[in-house]
Structure formats: C-alpha cells, structure tokens
Amino acid sequence: MQKIANLVVVKDGQVLLLKKPRRDWYVAPGGKMDPGESVYEAAVREFLEETGTEAVEPHLKGVYTMVIMDDAGQRVLDEWMLYTFMARDLIGIPFETTTEGVLEWHPVESLQTLPMAEGDRTNLLFAVTQKGIQYGTFFYTEDFKLLKEEIQRSKEGDGL
Asked: What CATH code is assigned to 2-154?
C-alpha cells in the first residue's frame, strides 16, 4: 500500500496550494513516504522539496484511506494511505513553479470552489477550519469521481 504525506500552510487567511498540470487540480504539497521515514518526516521533507520553504510547527490533521474502484464500484483497483498535516506559518519564500506544478496562495474560502478531488476538499477544509483530527475513507472511480466518503472525527487534539 502506498503511503503519502502532505502539508497545508495557512497564513494570513490564505492557503498555499500546488496546482498540478495533469488535471489543473489543486492539492496540498506532499508526496510518497520513503522507506523507514515517519509520516511527520515525510510531510516536512515533501513540503520543503515542493515549496522551497520550511513549515513552522506542523501537526497532524487527518489520516485517510483512498480507494480506487472499477467503474462499477465493485472491485478495488488501488489503495493508499494519506496523512495530512497543517501549519500556521512558514520560513522562506515559496517557489513560483516546480516540476510538480505551480504554487499559489488562495483565500481559505476558495477551498470550497477550486478544482480538486472532492476527498481533498473535505480533507483540506477540515484541516484549516476545524479542531481535532479527521479520519476517513474516500472511494473513487479511476477518473477520480467520488463514489462515497466515510468520515470520523476526533475532538482530541491541540486545535487548529
């Protein structure tokens, strides 16, 4: 099973997002975990690699299972885990473009309307607006149409 960690920074009412060229969808900077790497180390490393900046005091906001189903929704084709972190500041000036896409600041409210996978929308909105930690499973078709989501939330945690 693939393991992925991403990290979203919220600063002055803006979120730093990466616009991926393949679908022109927005995501939080992140990527695959290396063997033996913790989810925290992966999130921090991937954020630094993709933005050229260092997130200040990132903390875990979500743990998700992403399931890709066949078009009939009957058979699992792929599955991976996603660990989402959030920080309220960063050190440095983000790249404008990278090999992964274009980095852009957007108002937090734009997470409701920017083009992105619907599971990412649920995930990122929670990360930047709610306390605690969210857990869930997102079921998609191969072309990332959301079939179903199952969400659980913890009220424990140190807040936003």
From this structure: 3.90.79.10
pLDDT tens digits for range 61-87: 999 999 999 987 789 999 999 999 999
| Ranges of each domain in the chain | 2-154
User: How far apart are alpha carbons 96 and 135 in whole angstroms?
Assistant: 31
Task: Tell me the torsion sign for CA atoms 71, 33, 81, 48.
Answer: negative
CA gap 2, 83 in Å, rounded: 11
- Give the Cα separation of 77 and 119 in Å (integer): 17
Which phi and psi angles does 136 have, rounded to 5°? -175, 170
This prediction has a pTM of 0.93
pLDDT at 158 over 60: no
Alpha carbon distance 102, 51 (integer Å):
10
Pairing state of beta strands 133-140 and 59-69? Answer: parallel
